[in-house]
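Hey, I was hoping to borrow your eyes for a little while. A protein chain has come my way and I'm curious about its shape. Take your time with it, there's no hurry, and the full record follows here:
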Amino acid sequence: MAKVGLGALMTSALLTAMYILQVVVRAWLPGKDFQPESVAELEVPGNYMRIPLVILTCLAVGLGVYSQPFIDFLTSLASGSL
């Protein structure tokens, strides 16, 4: 039974890699008909885009630096002692 589960995980990983690879190739390797002038008018994202990114970055750095209290909380939550 474990072999079936392992096979399912491997198949899922392979299909996910193929799907993501298509996105990466289309984003970084445009086709012959790509016109660089078509993206010249794009602007830098405004504050409505920057604010969530800054908040997410601060949370990621904060949880990375001060991870022990969060891990202790999750451990006590998982053990049912909360």
About this structure: The chain has two domains: 1-32, 44-82.
